[in-house]
Design brief:
The chain is built from 28 helices and 23 strands. By secondary structure, the protein is an alpha/beta fold. Helix 1 packs antiparallel against helix 2.
Length: 729
């Protein structure tokens, strides 16, 4: 071959072919991967990974393949076998020995497919046992690999291994994108540093303070903010911010995080949130402060690895997020599932968590069955990668010391030291007391609850499932402003509805405002109703719902009513039922809003827990020699049945789909299109397929493009029964 090609494309204007040589691509990736790995002191490892990852492209078979697949030489005959990734892995093994398979060889071998399980890597049929084509130059200079400056044990090793993988695949994707799609590549550049963003936040906070009324609630918010700023110049570590709802946690925690990051030489702040509704609100506020170009709102991706079309898969991978922003707002699911992922497009972002501050907002929502791997991952990122973690909530869970389940076998070591930012003597739960709870555990039906809601002109009712939200909404009279919220609505629709609620509440002329919602609104959404109804749940969820009641403290003491729908059905099995049982076991004389009540609630909840590692992730990853990356990734899903994503017909979503079909996926387009996605249960998806309203517009990307299937009040319509056991948000 006259030239070793790594990538090429045909110029749309004059038709000439633009070629990137394999040498150029390899050098670029080596430099990028080295820079990424240098953030945690392993630059030589990143450099060698980059140098070796595409050695296999020197083979005659691959060179023929890329010429034919691109259309450069369409008539050339291509051998059946043209895979190239294994070659660099074989060379790395020869150069450095088998002892580094899971921290070095696997990364090269798997940079297209995803990190492999050890038995597949070592197996008799492994590609690592194949011969290297004779035309490939295997005379590669040996670079000495330095020893990491940090200590790690078998619990941490898989995170270090995955982090090196992240450095390689993101470097590979970024250089490929810079060559193939300069417009998308340029969108990833020109981000500000946290030092440049801090004055913008300080100005915003000063304006808020100037405009704020001199109320007791605002005085407490100011106290919280000043205490956060005072505590920001502490060393890298674990911190908690326990503030009752309405105490200004979001902005105060951000002020702490940015100043803490600057003080400790950290590069970005990552805010992880349980619900997409809070993400949208938080990201909107932050974009207003820092500019759209400095804030990433990231909660969903198309899974590019399921695609069989190689060209489409490559484009979709390049369109995935790498978190190269100073401020990231994402979901707990996206954050932790990435930490345990094995696929390139999911792992590419991980190296950008190094030297960061993670704010875990509403930390009490972390699923109990995954607490062990989650807590262990946070400890590893703190120890190996200079990450600080701030746990924020009104309902702080017990995560330090020994976490004990229903017997000693299900216990594990929590976080050794968590520094609380707000001193106990501040007694914020007393000073911010604006609500009382009235709990009625006697079962009711939908009609009875709807009749109760009708008695109030301004009321919000929060329930556990989509079905319950839909049934109660149907029973409310459509007078005044009556709204429904659930995840049967796409993100753009939810965001618009929340803005309607806020606007209606601020307009005193609106006599009737009634809202029925799932849990997506109970935490972090800044709304203020005089009356709240909350379906029975754990104490943490009830207190979060109570935070939507009398938020500004204008109406003395208001009431949050807790009710049961047991006349209709039992609570869904799993987290909600366990949490509700733990609440029922509490001493009824406790002050429900006190930190002591919350600690007792979590001890009760943990005492019923049969496993903090329900998927046995520890068995697959807590090792150095035998690591099962693919198996663990398949099992580590915080939502058991995450459902099937479909793009719905809302506003201009179909225009975006047409753009996708005309031009193919791009970074910006996929980012925008994610706002019009709804995740539905498998049975609902099959029902929609049966009536012929689902179309697979690209492999793995499904669209319900019929306007009639999307209701302006309740979102996506299906003909199947709703599931109460999954997709409860």
């Amino acid at each position: 071959m006259e030239q070793l090609i790594s990538h090429l494309y045909q110029d749309k204007q004059d038709g000439h072919w633009v070629i990137q040589s394999n040498e150029e691509h390899t050098d670029n990736v080596a430099k990028l991967a080295s820079d990424f790995a240098d953030e945690f002191g392993m630059a030589p490892w990143g450099e060698v990974l980059g140098k070796l990852h595409d050695k296999g492209k020197e083979s005659n078979a691959f060179q023929k393949y890329i010429r034919k697949a691109s259309g450069y030489a369409p008539d050339i005959k291509v051998p059946e076998e043209h895979r190239h990734a294994y070659v660099g892995g074989v060379i790395a093994r020869r150069m450095y020995g088998k002892g580094i398979d899971n921290i070095f060889v696997n990364q090269i071998f798997s940079h297209h497919t995803g990190l492999h399980d050890s038995d597949e890597l070592y197996g008799e049929k492994s590609d690592l046992k194949k011969d290297i084509p004779v035309e490939i130059d295997t005379n590669v200079a040996v670079t000495e690999l330095n020893k990491p400056s940090f200590s790690f044990d078998k619990n941490d090793f898989h995170h270090l291994s995955r982090m090196l993988f992240s450095c390689l695949v993101d470097a590979d994707y970024l250089d490929t994108e810079a060559f193939m799609d300069k417009e998308s590549s340029d969108l990833r550049k020109n981000k500000a540093s946290l030092k440049h963003l801090l004055p913008l936040l300080e100005k915003y906070l000063m304006n808020l303070k100037t405009d704020a009324k001199d109320s007791e609630v605002n005085q407490i918010r100011d106290i919280v903010q000043r205490q956060c700023l005072k505590m920001s110049e502490e060393p890298v570590g674990f911190y908690s911010l326990t503030v009752p709802t309405g105490g200004g946690k979001t902005l105060s925690s951000l002020a702490w995080a940015i100043k803490h990051a600057i003080h400790n030489g950290q590069r970005r702040v990552i805010i992880a949130i349980p619900y997409t509704s809070i993400i949208m609100q938080t990201a909107s506020v932050l974009r207003g402060i820092f500019g759209n170009e400095n804030v990433l709102e990231h909660h969903s991706n198309v899974n590019s690895e399921i695609l069989r079309d190689e060209n489409l898969e490559e484009k979709m991978k390049l369109a995935s997020e790498n978190w190269d922003y100073p401020i990231i707002v994402t979901t707990n699911v996206r954050l932790f599932e990435s930490m345990f992922a094995n696929k390139p497009s999911a792992c590419r972002k991980l190296h950008n968590i190094v030297n960061s501050v993670i704010i875990l907002d509403e930390v009490q929502t972390l699923p109990t069955g995954f607490l062990q791997p989650i807590v262990d991952s946070l400890k590893a990122y703190n120890k190996l990668f200079n990450v600080s973690i701030l746990l924020t909530t009104a309902s702080q869970p017990v995560l330090s010391g020994m976490i004990e389940g229903c017997n000693p076998k299900v216990s594990f070591d929590g976080i050794e030291k968590i520094t609380e930012i707000i001193p106990e003597e501040y007694a914020l739960h007393d000073k911010l007391r604006r609500v009382k709870l009235e709990i009625d555990d006697e079962g009711k039906n939908y009609d009875e609850i709807a009749d109760m809601l009708k008695k109030h002109k301004r009321v919000i009712c929060i329930v556990n499932t989509r079905k319950d939200a839909k049934e109660l909404f149907k029973r409310l009279p459509k007078e005044g402003i009556t709204l429904h919220l659930s995840k049967m609505m796409c993100s753009a629709h939810i965001s618009e509805t929340i803005e309607k609620i806020k606007s209606a509440l601020n307009d005193e002329s609106n006599a009737i405002i009634r809202v029925v919602s799932t849990q997506l609104i109970e935490a972090g959404v800044d709304i203020d109703f005089p009356v709240v109804y909350r379906q029975e749940a754990g104490l943490d969820s009830i207190l979060q719902a109570a935070g939507r009641c009398n938020r500004e403290g204008r109406n003395g003491i208001c009431t949050t009513f807790v009710f049961s729908l047991s006349k209709e059905h039992k609570l869904p099995l799993g987290e909600i039922q366990a949490a509700n049982n733990a609440r029922k076991n509490l001493n009824k004389n406790l002050d429900w809003f006190s930190p002591e009540a919350m600690s007792e609630f979590f001890y009760q909840k943990y005492s019923q827990t049969h496993s903090f590692d329900v998927k046995k992730i520890k068995e697959y990853l807590y090792s150095i020699n035998d690591l099962y990356f693919a198996t663990a990734a398949e099992k580590f899903h915080l939502i058991e049945d995450a459902g099937q994503n479909v793009i719905v017909c809302w506003k201009n979503s179909m225009d975006l789909i047409q753009q996708l079909l005309d031009s193919g996926p791009s970074y910006n387009l996929m980012k925008t299109l994610s706002q019009y996605s709804v995740s539905i249960h498998k049975t609902d998806f099959e029902a929609l397929q049966k009536i012929g309203v689902v179309k697979e517009v690209l492999e793995g990307l499904f669209v319900v493009g019929y306007r009639e299937q999307y209701d302006e009040n309740i979102g996506l319509l299906t003909d199947s029964n709703w599931s109460d056991k999954s997709l409860i948000i």
